[in-house]
Amino acid sequence: MGLIRSGQTDLTPEYNTKLTEYLWPIVREIVKTAIENEQNLIVEGCYVPFDWEKDFEEPYRISIRFICLAMNDAYIESHYEEILRHSSDIETRLGVMVHTVNRIPGNLPKGAIIEKPLHAVQGRTYGKHCYRGPKPPFNCKHDYRFTVYVLDTTISIDVNSYKKDLLNAMEGHIL
User: Fold this and answer.
1) b/e map of 32-71 (b: 16 or more CB within 10 Å)?
2) Contact (CB, 8 A) for 44 and 11
3) Cα–Cα distance between 150 and 75 in angstroms, integer?
4) Which of 18, 114, 155, 160 is deepest in the core (most CB within 10 A)?
5) Higher pLDDT, 164 or 91
6) What pLDDT does residue 57 have?
7) According to DSSP H, which parts of 37-162 are helical?
8) What is the pLDDT of residue 151?
9) CA 164 to CA 147: how far, in whole Å?
10) Beta strand 113-114 pairing with 120-121
């Protein structure tokens, strides 16, 4: 996120594969440096490719403990509430409160302004005023991240707004 926030790349978290290609050479060398300096390091996220081992010689590999959580759809469905209860354990331990928003319906009404389930101006996605639910990339690991902003006022934005316009309108009002 530091490279994204600092403007060093135009990629966003939605571009998992491209981010991995861009960041892995950097992350890989950080890992090697940590091992050489006998430091502990935790690397999380989609920036570790599945074939990561090929980039490390044996002396490095013996110092790496790789843990990958994999759950099939049936397991997730049958343990969904339990998984949610633990989804932010690390962040909570660090004093960060994270709330998980789940199962946003993919059938919100179409149109620039919607009244149900709540009054909202619906921005543009792919040039249209409609949220159609998640559209995962084909055959690729991906994450959805939602950010909830609490504002000190009600804002008005044009119905043809995009995310950057919304962020600009919220500036100075985020609590």
Assistant:
1) bebbeeeeeeeeeebbbeeebeebbeeeeeeeeeeeeeee
2) no
3) 34
4) 114
5) 164
6) 93
7) 58-61, 73-78, 80-86, 89-93
8) 82
9) 14
10) antiparallel
The one-letter code for the residue type at 15 is Y
Q: Rounded to whole angstroms, how far apart are CA atoms 159 and 163? A: 11
Place of tokens 């490279």: 3
Instruction: Kindly state the average pLDDT of the residues 78-93.
Output: 66
Q: Which residue has the tokens 């490719």?
A: 49
DSSP string, 101-124: -----S-PPPSSEE-SSS-EE---
pLDDT in tens, 141-153: 555 566 777 888 8
Q: How much of the chain exceeds pLDDT 90, in percent?
A: 11
